[in-house]
Design goal:
Blueprint lengths: L2 E2 L2 E3 L6 E3 L2 E2 L7 E11 L1 H7 L16 E8 L11 E4 L2 E3 L5 H4 L11 E2 L19 E5 L4 E2 L6 H4 L5 H11 L7 E5 L3 H12 L3 E6 L5 H6 L4 E4 L3 H6 L4 E6 L8 H5 L1 E9 L13 H5 L3 E4 L5 H14 L5 E5 L3 H9 L6 E5 L6
Helix pairs in contact: 4-5
Length: 350
């Protein structure tokens, strides 16, 4: 098994540092990818620090992977060496359940295999992510990157992009809808771009008046400062959808109140208990819905990438030398990035 350079966390407090790993020799359905860029997701940080209590060390993070095909297995017909490709959050699933049969591998009823911190279904080895020179992935879980997109700026589409695209498409967001986006981070700014490109009237909800102009620059038609009671009251019962991208506990009640009858609050950022408690009176009296959404399956992710290629949509990024990954994590905890770090994997070879 070939050994490649990588960066890994060895414990919750070790930081992320050089760590050689082994990649399997390609199976018949595998694609060997030379990684050129890898986006840095908050999930990378949470997993490296074991914030969710599920990390198995050593852990090589990274699930916003783009690069070039280097080799393919004998049974692969859809990819060839030299192709520009991507790998997102999933590298396998059962492929047989109802969800998988409908291209919704993210809801695999037997559990999908994460790009990192997972276990290979065939040989039981740990899965290692994109903070590495190469990755080997089954062709079913490899995506074609549009030639029109800058590869580095397209990397975060594999997580931040599909996380916001999937619910907007599933709930049919389009022309004539009023959509609110809560939060203006890596997910939020992609939600604004997608909702606007789909034809919706888009409003950003932010706690800071300092972000008003930035939100408009990203494409928002309107901005509401959520800490301003008068602005929130004026917005009551006026939105068809609210896309909530905030990843930490926060009050959902104000966003339920701004939904129209039959409106939907879609949660994509918060994993865990709601604080303070959700009041159900407005939900019941307005026939409003609280919904959740997780990334996207492979067909949907390819659809999103093709849409981005047609409309010139990418993520706003800051390029990163992998040697500075721990400093980048510290900045992410302070929300000091606009809007996604992307590692130039050439810096791994220095």
């Amino acid at each position: 098994m070939p050994q490649v350079k990588a960066y890994a966390a060895q414990s919750p407090d070790s930081g992320v540092a050089p760590f050689p790993i082994e990649r399997r020799a390609p199976r018949p359905d595998d694609v060997l990818i030379e990684i050129e860029y890898c986006g840095v997701c908050h999930s990378d940080l949470h997993t490296a620090y074991n914030d969710w209590g599920i990390t198995t060390y050593p852990i090589v993070p990274g699930h916003e992977i783009v690069g070039t095909v280097k080799a393919v297995g004998d049974a692969v017909t859809g990819f060839k060496p030299g192709d520009r490709v991507g790998v997102g959050c999933l590298v396998d699933s059962c492929r047989e359940c109802g969800s998988c049969e409908h291209g919704l591998e993210q809801y695999c009823e037997q559990g999908w295999v994460g790009t990192y911190n997972g276990v290979d279904r065939h040989d039981g080895t740990p899965t290692y992510g994109g903070y590495s020179e190469q990755i080997v992935v089954s062709d079913r879980f490899v995506l074609r990157m549009p030639e029109s997109l800058d590869l580095a700026a397209a990397a975060p589409l594999l997580c931040a992009g599909i996380t916001t695209w999937s619910p907007l498409k599933h709930f049919g967001v389009g022309k004539g809808h009023r959509v609110g986006v809560v939060g203006m981070g890596g997910l939020g700014h992609m939600g604004v771009k997608f909702a606007r490109a789909l034809g919706a009237e888009v409003t950003v909800f932010t706690r800071s008046a300092a972000k008003v102009e930035e939100a408009k620059k990203q494409g928002a038609h309107h901005v509401i400062v959520s800490t301003d009671a008068a602005q929130m009251e004026a917005a009551a019962a006026s939105f068809d959808f609210i896309l909530d991208t905030v990843p930490v506990p926060h009050d959902l009640n104000p966003y339920v109140n701004v939904l129209k009858r039959d409106g939907t609050l879609i949660i994509v950022g918060l994993l865990g208990p709601v604080e303070p408690a959700l009041h159900t009176f407005p939900v019941v009296l307005g026939r409003r819905r609280i919904a959740g959404s997780l990334i996207g399956g492979l067909p949907e992710t390819q659809e999103m990438l093709d849409f981005c290629g047609e409309h010139g949509i990418t993520c706003d990024i800051e390029m990163l030398d992998i040697k500075n990954i721990n400093a980048a994590y510290e900045r992410m905890q302070r929300s000091d990035v606009r809007y996604r770090f992307v590692i130039d994997m050439a810096t791994l070879k220095d």
